[in-house]
Each structure stands twice: as structure tokens, then as C-alpha cells.
Amino acid sequence: xxxxxxxxxxxxxxxxxxxxxxxxxxxxxxxxxxxxxxxxxxxxxxxxxxxxxxxxxxxxxxxxxxxxxxxxxxxxxxxxxxxxxxxxxxxxxxxxxxxxxxxxxxxxxxxxxxxxxxxxxxxxxxxxxxxxxxxxxxxxxxxxxxxxxxxxxxxxxxxxxxxxxxxxxxxxxxxxxxxxxxxxxxxxxxxxxxxxxxxxxxxxxxxxxxxxxxxxxxxxxxxxxxxxxxxxxxxxxxxxxxxxxxxxxxxxxxxxxxxxxxxxxxxxxxxxxxxxxxxxxxxxxxxxxxxxxxxxxxxxxxxxxxxxxxxxxxxxxxxxxxxxxxxxxxxxxxxxxxxxxxxxxxxxxxxxxxxxxxxxxxxxxxxxxxxxxxx
Length: 375
Fold this sequence. Notes:
By secondary structure, the protein is an alpha/beta fold. It has 15 helices and twelve strands. The chain has helices at residues 2-21, 34-45, 47-50, 76-87, 115-120, 134-145, 177-188, 224-239, 246-259, 268-282, 299-307, 322-326, 336-339, 341-349, 353-363; strands at 51-54, 65-69, 95-99, 124-127, 149-152, 194-202, 207-212, 243-244, 265-267, 287-288, 311-314, 317-320.
């Protein structure tokens, strides 16, 4: 019933926006209906079945706060909003920091409505990534002063290769969070925390994991050096929130075998054993499947990788296409995952050395070099 009611509210808001464009009604504010947006977006984006929220106890139940998240997919802001809504039982509804040139060019310029306008009335504060001014940042500080929250992406840009922070031109280091903690605390009159969070996407199950880390506070009257160290500490805390799924563990195993020139044909049972050993080794340190005590699903990610053409399933055997697994996509673009899904998944956990160490141990790769095997 809540979903049907939410769709009704969506239609009313769509009509309101249409009449606003016809100059018959004032501009709507979509944030006036938070209780209805959750079930509508949730049904549209499969939140109930397709999103798992971990460590929601770290999520503040009220503002002010700055949520610092990684940027892996285009719809990250919506999943961040949904995860916070679930973790706070609908008590916290966020604003979003967004660059003002995202919806520029084809096809956005040819739509009968403005996406920038729609996102603005949905709670997005738009800034210029190349020429940020204090005037652009003031609305975000005002949000904190009003004891509300917003989400920002310290990596400043969406990752195309799967890497947690993808450095490229204009992105020398992650940062910006400490600025809002320092000045937001002064305006709000109370300490403002940064809440690390990370989204991990498992395409084999079409499932999103959103995990929260413990809030990070900036010391009062922190120097610029302390602010910079805090920015890096926040990103480190974000990276520790990444979830290692069976797909990620399996891809690390496959990539290492190919990288070390090991036999490309082996049994499914051996692959299952290697994958489970990796997950078991890192579970006490990081978020690793399974979370409900059930058996690890190895078959679904294995079939997904077969559909991507990086391996072949032949009865009880697995035959890996070594060239495809080791191939480096010619272009660093949004097709990276399709061109090399194994490397894309490996990149998502590449910063967690414990995962690679666990895979090397499982495969018997020692310090003396690769161990070639016909397993």
C-alpha cells in the first residue's frame, strides 16, 4: 500500500513540476515528501532485495553530519540516501553535493526539462568542480548550521576502473571534508562528524552493499596539516567499509593465477575452496560474505563471469581465458567493466592488501615466486 501511495505522490509531483514549467504554479520542493520518496525509489531501484546495509549503528540519528562516500556508479547518491534512510528509520534525509556541469551536452540539452533544475529541487547543491568559490560552499555550511546533513564524494569524480579513488587530471589528493567539519562546527555550535561510508556493487547478483564506518571528528582549531591528515584518515576509513563478496574474492584468485602464469584449467571445487579461504581469512578485519551464516554462493558469480566471456565452464572444470583476464582496456571510460570485468572487480579491493595476501596464501604463491600447478 505504501508503494502505491508513493507512486501517487510521484505523479502529483510530476504534475506540479509540469505546471511550474508552464508558469501556472510555483516551483515545487520534492524534499517535502521524504516518507513517500523512500518506498517509490526503493521499488524502482530494488532496495528491499537488492541493497544490504551494514553497520547502520555508526550512522547518526540526527544532524549535523557530513557523509563521505566513494563514487562507483551513477546512481550512488540515491543508494546513499536510501541506506541512510534505512539506518536512521527515516529520521535523516540528506542533501547532496553535485557538480554543476554533469547534465550538460547530449542528451541532457535536448530534454524538455532541465535535469539540473530537477536535481536542485530534489536537494542537490551544485558547485563548479573546476572553480569552486566560497559562495558555492555557503549553502552547504548553512545545511550544517541548520542541523541537517549532506553527502559528498571526496574522490571528486566517479571511478571508471573500479579503483576506490581514481586519480586523474585535477585530482591530486582526496579532500574537502575537513573544511566542512571545521567551519560547519563553528556555524552549528556543536562538533560536526564525518561519517565514512562505501558502496560496493556485485553485478553477478545485482546487489549493492552500503557499509558505514565510525564517525570521524576534527580536533577543535585544527591546523591545515591536521585538516589534511584528517581528510586522508576519512578516505582510509571509507576504504575499510568496502565489502568483499564471493565475486571479488574469486576475481582476485583468477587474476593472480593468470598473472603468475599458473595452469588456466582447474576444477570448480578448487576454485570454491580458494574463494572461501580468501573470505574466511579477511572476515575478522573487513566486511566479507556471508553475513547471515549461510553458505557462500560461488556458482552465481561463476556463471556471471562465464557470460562475460572471461572463462568457460566445462562440467566440473573451469577454463580461464588468460589473455582476457590480463588485458588492459585501451580506454579508461565507463566501458571498462565490460571490457575486463575481472580486473574491474579486482580494482575495487586492490587497496586492501589483506585480500591479495589471503589469495596468495590460498594459491600457495610464496615469496620465492609463483608456484606453477596443474590443479
